[in-house]
Amino acid sequence: MGRAVARIAANPAARILSAIALLLIVPFVVSSSYVLDIADDMIIWAILTLGLNVVVGFAGLLDLGYIAFFAIGGYTFGVLGSKLGVSMWLSIPVSAVLVLVAAVIIGIPTLRLKSDYLAIMTLGFGEIIYLTVNNLNGLTGGPNGLYNMPVPRFFGISLQEPGQFYWFLAILLALALLATSRLRRSHIGRAWLAVRHDELAARATGVNVVRLKLLAYMVGALWAGVVGVLFAAKQTIVSPTSFQFSQSFYVLSSVIIGGMGSIPGAIVGGFIFILISESLQGVAQSYSSIVFSVALLAVILMRPKGIVPARVGARAVGRVQHAPPGPRPSGLLQPLSGADAVTGAAPPSGGAPTAPLLSVSGVSVRFGGVQAVRDVSISVHPAQILSVIGPNGAGKTTLLNIISGFVRPDRGSVYLAGRELTHMRVDLRAKLGLARTFQTPRLLPTLSVVDNVMQGGHVTFSPGILSVVVGTTRRRREERQAREQAEELLDALELSHVADSIPTELSYGDQRRCEIARCLALHPRIILLDEPAAGMNAPETEALGRLLLRVRELGIALLLIDHDMSLVRAVSDRVTAMDRGATVTSGKMEEVLRHPDVVQSYLGA
Amino acid sequence: MFLQEIINGIVVGASYTLIALGFTLVYGLIRLINFAQISLYTLGAYLALFFSPLFASLLPGHGWIAFGLSILTSGLLTGAAGVAVAGVAWWPIRRAPTISMLVSSLAILILIESLIEVFISPVPEVVKPPVSDRNLTILGSHVSTLQIVMFGGGLALTLVLYLFIRTTRFGRAIRSVASNPNSAAVLGVNIGATVFAVFAIAAMLAGVSGVLVSNTYGVASFTMGEIVGLKGFTAAVLGGMGNIWGAVVGGFTLGILESISTFLLPSQWTAVVAFAVLILVLAFRPTGILGTRLADRA
């Protein structure tokens, strides 16, 4: 029995099915219309919480005006229903369009801002909507609100009774649950978590951060806009009091108390809110805001992940179990061949190819009074390893940041495979096959190792959100292939025993290799490696060297920055030495190391 | 008529300035929009509601002294509340993501407001200042003595704050933490104490502002801080977040803009003007008029 429950609990699809089953049983067990009315409210609030959880919990956008979308939904039905006699059913799509338009209008200028400014902007938006419905007496009835909307009917059956309305709400909650959890487990969900935890790393994997934020904002708005119509229909009245700032605060509290980013958490948080506020209804309604603010503070201080914390790396059912960790069959190359097939880059047949893959010419950048990079030119050919060496502060990482797009050069240009990148956005560079690692590994703590690698393959997924929500077979196949590929990559990098771990549990060396796996998932033409051997011991460094050479054999070029001369010596085709922002010399390893200026910059003047 | 609106705008602007200063100080130091600031403004007003009659009865005939003492006591107590806010919304979660701090300060805002609503009064209170407020006529426009006190007090507090931060040893500590907490810590600045103190100063400014506003306009309610707080924040952003003179410029600009807007819009829409200004500034010039002194590079 216990094991059966555990198996159901471990399977997302089974969890949702059992939740739906539970929902459908309720009206058969409960007949009191008072209880069913509360159940209706619980579902409405749970859907709201689920929607805000996409915005706050997945994408990390602190939205303090979320209730505005709920208000737009409610007043869409209020105005259309009471003035024109439009039915609830027709009001739903109208409201959906309106909230999506509102989300785009408010989202495009605000979502570029830092999260705390976003919080204030959304708060302002919520207040504007509230003041508008409160002040526009002619249209919205002002403080008195609107009533006289047509009674919702379903094939002639009135849905006025809480018990009849319940069915409809339960189905809607089930759909919202299904859609939300599909989104969460897709490449879009992984990209949202990446945006929430590390925008920089997300951009480096090719995620268009503003677009993904807008998407989350729109999904949240849609949930609220649709459920707002139902709320108005159920209440038979819409008035401004339902859409005050405190309501936004309550939805946010429900998300955080339930568990940020956790789907079951959102349901639990939403249910708890209604149960508490209903039980306080008789006593004194204002007590509920005291109870809720104290509960929220207690959760933040003592259980920051909420009542039902978001799960990391839920295994999909039917996934292949890995062999226990141990010596792998020799030849890392074999498992990587799958990746080779998709890179499309023809492995070079030895000898120097004619056209450089990456060419950086004459780039300079100045930070305040420091000339960080001065007139540097380098080029990397396909399947070539170029190492950039130099003392600390030589400008190596800045050069790498210029190539990957995090720093704009004052002068000079960057070309990749004949396309100019100099002013291109970071995520577009990733789409062209430019991947990078960071000096300190930047893996996502809320995704398992294998999911981190899959997130790295973001650009390999076909665009479109509807196919994710519907769960088309093409999508499923794409997801399955990406997972298989990520597992192969982890296998090849001897990380499969930690595939389901949280990255922070990994050793430093393993984290670095996981970052390389994430780069490979992007099907790159070139990988920029920023001190990959830092923090590795000698055998690990040696293994890393072998790995880099194998990556090169796949036709992928590497630009390596490292201080470990044994690694640089072992893998480099060519070496460029930098000092104080400028190139000292370039050439073969031995020549470069013999160069008097290099000797001087390393040994000190 | 026009001059009258400008004067009203300037007076209101002084209160926005005081709240904006509180936001700017805390934000400049730890990059936190301290929502609790808004409830401390309300708290200040309610404390004075208790202390003003108390001091007035102890010092009959000395209305201004009683008022001064009431402002001082309420301000100091709000300052203490500010320390408590920092103890909940910053200290225990200072290493957590910003979102946790934002939400806790928001929770404190709701908590203080609802405590006032439940235990003091759910309806607006009439505030009777302990001094006789007279109307003066300047160039055909009406100004009350309390409005002058509010304006003068706002300017004086800003100046004191500026001199405090510019000239004292403690002010130097604040500036060093704001520009780089790590190197400040290495140089021996006690970061915890500095942040707690700044929360206290910001809270005092909000509290004093609440006392002055509630006495000038004769009303206090548990939600009185919400709209004013958001306007104070708008003022801080408009002038340049993290910049003391930005708070002043932003506060008065917003006050005057709002007053002028009453010629064009019915008065219940003035709040919308403030939010529109906020959204436009954030969208098109997030560094504000004077620019952020402590702008963080993304």
Task: List the keywords.
heterodimer; A: 605 residues; alpha/beta; ABC transporter involved in vitamin B12 uptake, BtuC; Rossmann fold; 3 domains; 6-stranded mixed beta sheet; 4-stranded antiparallel beta sheet; 25 helices; 57% helix; 10% strand; elongated; B: 298 residues; mainly alpha; two-stranded antiparallel sheet; 11 helices; 4 strands
**Strand content range of chain A:** 5-15%
User: Total strand count of chain A, please?
Assistant: 12
The coarse silhouette of chain B is: globular
What general form of chain A does the structure show?
A: elongated
Instruction: Determine the strand fraction of chain B and express it as a percent band.
Output: under 5%
Q: Please give the CATH class of the largest domain in chain A.
A: Mainly Alpha
* Strand arrangement, major sheet of chain B: 1-4
CATH topology of the largest domain in chain A, what is it called? ABC transporter involved in vitamin B12 uptake, BtuC
Structural class of chain B: mainly alpha
List the helices and strands and how they pair.
The complex is a heterodimer of chains A (605) and B (298).
Chain A: H1 2-10, H2 12-29, H3 33-58, H4 67-84, H5 88-110, H6 115-135, H7 137-140, E1 153-154, E2 157-158, H8 162-184, H9 187-197, H10 199-204, H11 209-235, H12 245-258, H13 263-281, H14 287-302, H15 333-343, E3 358-367, E4 370-380, E5 385-389, H16 396-404, E6 411-416, E7 419-420, H17 426-431, E8 434-436, H18 449-456, H19 466-470, H20 473-492, H21 508-521, E9 526-530, H22 538-553, E10 557-561, H23 565-571, E11 574-579, E12 582-587, H24 589-594, H25 596-603
Parallel strand pairs in A: 5-10, 5-11, 8-9, 9-10
Antiparallel strand pairs in A: 1-2, 3-4, 3-6, 6-7, 11-12
Helix pairs in contact in A: 2-8, 3-8, 3-11, 3-12, 3-13, 4-5, 4-6, 4-11, 5-11, 9-11, 9-18, 12-13, 12-14, 13-14, 15-20, 18-20, 18-21, 20-21, 22-23
Chain B: H1 2-30, H2 36-58, H3 63-89, H4 98-119, E1 125-126, E2 135-138, E3 141-144, H5 145-167, H6 169-179, H7 181-186, H8 191-217, E4 219-220, H9 224-239, H10 244-261, H11 270-284
Antiparallel strand pairs in B: 1-4, 2-3
Helix pairs in contact in B: 1-5, 1-8, 1-9, 1-10, 2-3, 2-4, 2-8, 2-9, 3-8, 5-6, 5-8, 6-8, 9-10, 9-11, 10-11
